[in-house]
Amino acid sequence: NRYAEVGRREEALVAVERSVTLREGLYEVAPQAFASDLARSLNNASNRYAEVGRREEALVAVERSVGLYEGLYEVAPQAFASDLARSLNNASNWYAALGRREEALVAVERSVGLYEGLFEVAPQAFASDLAKSLANAFHRSGEAGRPEDVARIGERVRRFFDETDPDFLTYLDPTLRVDLEQIAGFGAGR
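Given the sequence above, the corresponding structure tokens read:
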């Protein structure tokens, strides 16, 4: 990830591919001990593949990550809900990039559901993640041609603003905040 942060995308991809290979070996020996490490590496690999334009490989990696996190979530939901939600949100992005709109919508709706549960328990810890997933869900619904879902999510974003500490909202990424404000306006029927 450090390579990616300084724009060295190819080197970042090589590093994360190596990480996946190492963790796959560990997972084969002790699946319960290394499933979460492998899932995290696969999710990172998905992002690195996408950065270099290899969208199909990004999707394959994130689908594997989601599969592993789903298994972990079944055993320990509180420990892995946020990881599963993050991977589902990424999966939604890659499905959308490949024109698979319905799958993108299903994945992001699952992500939103998980983040809403986490937000109820720890609002400050998960407000930003919920905000990103809600914005993603709004856009995926529009792309899928579902105006009723667009309106429903717009209303949910408006409630999100009502439920969230206004001081926290100032810390959101400015682009995300503007996007959410426009979506909330749509939910209010403006």
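Residues 9-29 form the longest helix (21 residues). Try to locate this feature in the token string yourself.
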